[in-house]
Amino acid sequence: MSAPFSWIKAEPMGIRVVPADCWIDPARAVDTALVTHGHADHARGGHGRTLATPQTLAIMQLRYQTETGAVPVAYGETIRLPGGVSATYQPAGHVLGSAQILLEHAGERVVVTGDYKRRSDPTCPPFEPIPCDVFITEATFGLPIFHHPPIEEEIAKLLTARAANPERCVLIGAYALGKAQRVIAELRLAGYAEPIYLHGALEKMCRLYEDLGVGLGDLRPIAGLPRAALQGQIALCPPSALNDRWSRRLPDPITAMASGWMRVRQRARQKNVELPLIISDHADWGELTRTISEVNPAETWITHGREDALLRWCELNQRKARALALVGYEDEDD
Q1: What is the value of pTM for the model shown?
Q2: Domains of the chain, first to last
């Protein structure tokens, strides 16, 4: 009789599902990949077959030209893999199209979360806890110091800064996939109906979100606008553009950054961020521990972040856990 969970292996390049001869979020091209979402530390081109939600496949086609071998899997859909393995995709709440993958084999259930968050997000379906035997969780913000405030408070802070500085532009650094669209959607929920201006690097992904049914309102490119046209306006750019030569064309911008890392003041200072906005697309410490308690697995496998603290929490709460050593897993300007 084989050991429990011996059919699923955590190897440096990803999670290997042995009897199905496939990988989850592998760091290099493989014959068959099950992909949780479109961020570059989980998705890549070159696979023979890519199984993902239709939205993730559309994102991967835009970013990595992965149309060949694309196999769409809807939320709630169960697919049969070789070797008696089944896989069911469920929402992860991280970005549009993000999924947890429930694997079932030989009476055992393993959930691979990819990245996830527990907060409401108007751009994607919410996370759903799935009871399982092994829960493979990220730990990007796996330290007790990380507690994300309500996003409504951060959006109010942003709008207050704009109102107080009508001669300046508020320039928000936000990652191109997920964060930028969430900030825009939250601004709309807060009643901000004016145009929002975009750096060219954000335009295609925002348009794809709209094509996939996520309304973002009036979006306009910054390129070609006179400096005065952006006074009192809100603009978004990649974090790398916040303090480069490109940003100098804007009218005395208030530099803002939307990231869970803005909880760490030193990070804000290092990036010359005037207005830190603690907005994350990952679970914070309390949400990580609550999720493990809700799922109540026999084992918790921890990856992608601060494994040691979450591993210690599991030990103190009499929960069997282990830290994985996967390569290529880094936060993408969360």
Answers
A1: 0.94
A2: 8-145+282-323 (3.60.15.10), 151-277 (3.40.50.12650)
